[in-house]
Design goal:
Number of helices of chain B: 10
Strand content of chain A: over 45%
Shape of chain A: elongated
Helix content of chain A: under 10%
Structural class of chain A: mainly beta
Number of domains of chain B: 2
Largest sheet of chain A: 11 strands, parallel
Strand order of the largest sheet of chain A: 1-2-5-8-12-16-20-24-28-31-33
Structural class of chain B: alpha+beta
Number of strands of chain B: 15
Number of strands of chain A: 34
CATH architecture of chain A: 3 Solenoid
Strand content of chain B: 15-25%
Helix content of chain B: 25-40%
Oligomer: heterodimer
């Protein structure tokens, strides 16, 4: 398949499910352009590549769970050039990561996914390492974290990502809890919405045993506020970012220089 | 009138010499009546310690239960009722923590020792609850929360998670479900922090120290390994919960299904029944509301056991696979 070296997977039917089931650990699957029926658990380390890019390679959920799910510990998962859509899960409609491993996502689109019981309409992760590069989260819905919910002990980096018109009760774009360590770099946030409060962009909170650390650098937040805590706040650092002026007065949000605060 | 001679005689009389003191004879000892001990008044119990309470849930749902005040525990309530810790004790209250209530019932039914070992009665009106959590490397750490027994109240009963145990016709205020919920809320920041969904596996892990294992049910066949896994877990007394799909899913539109979307349930166990030469498989479920159905739905389908079954119902293996999207087994 042009641009991809690996096991070729035709679009349609159950080809993807069968390929995932049969692939040895560490396999690289090259997905043809078209729609692939998903709603799959990834049982071993694997790379899934949309050879012709996310716009042409769509993984469609089956309405009963995440589009892709990672439960096992110790896996290395790599997703590239895919659109994940149609996932309906309690946590992580597009991609749900419950295992402690390493997940790398780049040049993917998460759109039209839902997570109504816990959250993370586009993506939910709770353990291990997560890296998301040059990916778009658009029109996802979650109870908490319309686009992304990072929970418990995951260490994550979101770089050059776009968060657009996602919605949640709390944390329209991002929800971060517990001991999460998150770096958001060079990412944009527009039109994300929280139905219950002032946290259209970000809601972060800790527990009495640990609190998250969040850094936004070179980010552009057009609108959408942040709620930190309120009972147990996170440490939120802003660097060289443009954010709404309301962020300045939120306890626990620290100005580390180079920031611009746009009027609301 | 005395004569002068008589007077003289009086003046010449000698002063008597001082006499040695007479030896004091000890008074004879009277037998003393036995001293009656003063009745000891029972010590007044120390006033219970009053700790800061976690904030209640802040959303539209709570407005219906105004006033939403904390009620002081009147000390009549006990941590455990006469029947001890049972799955059916747990009843979810007015907040969105079905994941917690379902998990508490699962642990209560399979591992009541885990609950007993988690809660320490400090004998001063407070309870210390021990929770486990995993750090980034997967190491188990311990966290303790101390709470008192003041609970958000709706005027008659605690408004959040509570016990359903009834003793001699009277609703017994058995505290353990409420105390665990309050301690969990305290740990996570507030009732609000836990009142908008969560993961049952986290609660089971917090109490047992063992990580939950999730499995999807969609696509699982009649003879799938999932049945073997669930049967093994049931036999080994491993706590289990199951989650349903989205609320708007057509599977849950029909009241006859008796299962609600975006809801966590306790898996009480599985059983196999011989019907002729066939073995029928069933899964025993429990709705943490303490009733399978909302009252209106029960009336609609003529469910006459809704109020008495404690939320427990039985589904065939195929119906379970159809109606639930995932299972979490602890340990």
């Amino acid at each position: 398949m042009a641009g991809c070296t690996g096991i070729e997977v035709a679009a349609g039917g159950t080809a993807l499910a069968q390929a995932v089931e049969a692939a040895p650990a560490g396999a690289r699957l090259c997905l043809a352009a078209g729609e692939h029926a998903a709603g799959l658990s990834l049982p071993r380390s694997i790379t899934l590549v949309g050879a012709e890019g996310a716009e042409k390679t769509v993984l469609k959920g089956d309405g009963r769970g995440a589009v892709l799910r990672v439960d096992e510990d110790g896996l290395a998962i790599h997703l590239e050039g895919l659109t994940l859509t149609g996932g309906v899960a309690d946590a992580g409609g597009g991609l749900s990561v419950f295992g402690r491993g390493k997940v790398v996502v780049h040049d993917c689109v998460f759109t039209g996914n839902r997570a109504g019981m816990v959250g993370g309409g586009g993506l939910y992760a709770r353990e291990g390492l997560l890296t998301v590069l040059r990916s778009t989260f658009r029109d996802n819905q979650g109870r908490q974290g319309g686009a992304v919910f990072l929970d418990r002990v995951v260490r994550a980096e979101l770089q050059r990502c776009t968060f657009q018109t996602n919605e949640a009760e709390s944390g329209g774009a991002l929800r971060v809890t517990e001991a999460v360590e998150l770096e958001v770099k060079a990412s944009t946030f527009t039109g994300n919405r929280s139905t219950a409060g002032q946290d259209g962009t970000l809601r972060a909170s800790g527990t009495r045993s640990r609190a998250p650390q969040v850094e936004l650098s070179h980010c552009d937040v057009t609108d959408g506020g942040v709620v930190n805590g309120p009972e147990i706040p996170a440490q939120i650092r802003l660097k060289n970012s443009k954010v709404p002026v309301s962020w300045r007065s939120v306890a626990g949000v620290a100005d580390h220089g180079g920031n611009a605060f746009r009027p609301e | 009138m005395p004569s002068a001679a008589h007077k003289k005689k009086s003046q010449n009389k000698k002063k008597p010499q001082p006499q040695p003191p007479k030896p004091v004879q000890p008074k004879p000892q009277q037998p003393q009546a036995p001293v009656q001990p003063k009745p000891v008044e029972p010590a007044k119990p120390a006033a219970p310690r009053d700790l800061v309470d976690p904030a209640v849930v802040k959303d539209a749902d709570t407005k219906a239960l105004d006033p939403y005040a904390y009620k002081k525990n009147d000390r009549a309530a006990k941590l455990y009722g006469p029947n001890g810790i049972q799955a059916l004790d747990v009843r979810q209250g007015a907040i969105g923590d079905c994941f917690l209530a379902a998990a508490l019932a699962a642990v209560a039914g399979s591992r009541p020792d885990a609950i007993k070992n988690a809660i320490k009665d400090n004998a001063d009106g407070t309870y210390t609850v021990r929770f486990y959590e995993l750090d980034w490397a997967g190491n188990k750490t311990v966290h303790a929360e101390t709470v008192d027994a003041d609970l958000p109240h709706n005027g008659e009963t605690p408004a959040y998670a509570r016990s359903t145990e009834v003793v001699e016709g009277k609703q017994w205020m058995e505290l353990w479900p409420s105390i665990l919920e309050k301690a969990y809320a305290n740990w996570k920041g507030s009732y609000d922090a836990i009142g908008h969904g969560g993961v049952s596996g986290d609660v089971m892990q917090a109490l047992t120290g063992e990580k939950g294992k999730y499995q999807k049910t969609a696509g699982v066949g009649e003879n799938d390994a999932l049945w073997t896994k669930m049967k093994g877990a049931s036999d080994a007394k491993k706590p289990m919960t199951a989650g349903s799909g989205g609320e708007e899913d057509p599977r849950y539109k029909d009241a006859s299904a008796g299962v609600y979307g975006w809801h966590a349930y306790t898996v009480m166990g599985v059983e196999e029944t011989k019907v002729g030469d066939k073995t029928e498989k069933f899964v025993i479920m429990r709705n943490p509301w303490g009733k399978r159905r909302r009252d209106a739905d029960a009336a609609k389908v003529g469910d006459t056991t809704n109020s008495t079954a404690g939320g427990v119902f039985k589904l065939s293996w195929s119906e379970f696979r159809r109606l639930y999207d995932d299972v979490t087994v602890s340990g």
